[in-house]
Design brief:
90 residues; mainly alpha; two-stranded antiparallel sheet; 1 helix; 36% helix
Amino acid sequence: MFTSEDDIEKLLMVEIGPRFCLLPIKAFEGSMGGDALWQNADYISPSKQRSKKYDAFVKRRVAKEKRKVYNEKVHKKGQDPDGYLNDAFE
């Protein structure tokens, strides 16, 4: 145990465990419940994070399927299916 009479040069700091940080979500009035005194407005639940990630994945997959269908249509007919380039080569 270090006391004020000990030499400050001999003081050695030792880490005794992994570091961690807490991400508080809510502070309640009672120990296990009650009125919410404070709420972290920036907190996003893990299920909402997974849902957002899945929605982005689905959106990319749908866009990829649309591109695939469009490209197949273009290659199959050998021309632009929308026809906006038809006048360019006349």
